């Protein structure tokens, strides 16, 4: 495990992903990656959904994987350092990368 790297989904959710999306599972896992910053508010979004597991599988996981795969394609040591800085800012309450426009279908709830 490293500081920066994708956080794998639970095994029961992986079966819903495409083979292309599963490439992220080949990466060394970490404590934080792009999806953690962009969808930091996913717990609040899912809490408001009538079927949280369905909302997660159909809407959040594909977005999380897309964000992580895009970052991975262009990943450098410098981008990892920048990401670590953003994680520290997030912990201080700054939501620089958060997708504030994303609304989980079926809830009408956006970012908190």
Task: Give a quick precis of the structure.
With 112 residues, this protein is mainly alpha-helical. It has helices spanning 11-14, 34-38, 42-47, 52-73, 77-91, and strands at 2-4, 30-32.
From the structure above, extract its key features.
112 residues, mainly alpha, 5 helices, globular
Order of helices and strands: EHEHHHH
Proportion of helical residues: 40-55%
State the total count of DSSP E strands.
Answer: 2
The fraction of residues assigned to DSSP E strands is 5-15%
Unreliable residue runs: none
Spatial strand order of the main sheet: 1-2
Based on CA atoms alone, the radius of gyration comes out at: 14 Å
Q: Total domains, how many?
A: 1
Class from secondary-structure proportions: mainly alpha
Oligomer: single chain
Query: What coarse outline follows from CA principal-axis ratios?
Result: globular
Tally of helical segments: 5
Mean pLDDT: 79
Topology:
Blueprint: E1 2-4, H1 11-14, E2 30-32, H2 34-38, H3 42-47, H4 52-73, H5 77-91
Tell me what the structure shows.
- By secondary structure, this protein is mainly α.
- It has one domain (2-91).
- 46% of the residues lie in helices and 5% in strands.
- It has five helices and two strands.
- The chain has helices spanning 11-14, 34-38, 42-47, 52-73, 77-91; strands spanning 2-4, 30-32.
- The chain has a two-stranded parallel ribbon with strand order 1-2.
- Helix 1 (11-14) links the parallel strand 1 and strand 2.
- The radius of gyration is 14 Å and the shape is globular.
- The mean pLDDT is 79.
